[in-house]
Amino acid sequence: MALGKTHEAINLILLPAALYLVPKEFYFPFTLGYLLGTFFLSPDIDIKHSKPSRRWKYIRFIWMPYQKGSRHRGFSHIPVFGTFIRLFYLNLLIVFIYFILIGILRYTYPELSNIFISFDTVLSIANKESAFFFLLGLIASEVFHVLLDIASTTLKRIL
C-alpha cells in the first residue's frame, strides 16, 4: 500500500495527463474536483488519522461515522462507487445540518427561515457540464489512487 505522500505526489504528476483528455473550457472544474478528491475526499478518508482526514481540521469529526462504518480498502476504494458514497455521505450531513438550521431559525428568527427555505443551492445554479467535469475530476483522482494501491500491493507480493 502506498503512503499518503506518494498518492498525492503521483496524483499531482498525473494531473496534466488527465487534463489532456478534458476540453480546455472545463479545466477549472475538473482540476478543482481532482484536487479536492486528492487532498480532501480521498479513499483514505476511511482511516481516522490519514492526511485527508486531518486536513478537515476542526470538523474532521464529521467523518467519524463514515470511518466506523467502513473498513480500509472496503467500499471506499471501489472506483466511482466510492466517490458517490463519500459525496452521498457529505450531502446527507449538509442536508441534516440545513434542516436543523431551518428548525432553529423558525423559532428564533422566522423571517430568516423563509430566506433559507427559498435559497437556491449551488447545484441548481451550476452549469451541468461544469458539474460533470468536477465529478469526473473527483473520480479520476480516486481511480489513480486505487490503481497505485493495486500496483504497490502487487509489487510487494512479487518482491
Q: Would you kindly provide a written description of the structure presented here, covering whatever features stand out?
A:
This protein is 69% helix and 0% strand. It has 159 residues and is an all-alpha fold. The mean pLDDT is 86.
Notable features of this structure?
single chain; 159 residues; mainly alpha; 8 helices; 69% helix
What's this entry about, in short?
The protein is mainly alpha-helical. The protein contains 8 helices and no strands.
Instruction: Give the total of beta strands.
Output: 0
Radius of gyration: 18 Å
Report, as a whole number of angstroms, the end-to-end distance. 13 Å
Query: Which shape, going by the Cα principal axes?
Result: globular
Low-confidence stretches: none
Give the overall average pLDDT: 86
Largest sheet: none
User: What share of residues is helical?
Assistant: 55-70%
Helix/strand order, N-terminal first? HHHHHHHH
Q: What's the total helix number?
A: 8
Helix-and-strand structural type: mainly alpha
Beta-strand proportion: under 5%
Topology at a glance:
Elements: H1 4-19, H2 27-39, H3 51-54, H4 64-69, H5 81-108, H6 110-117, H7 122-125, H8 128-158
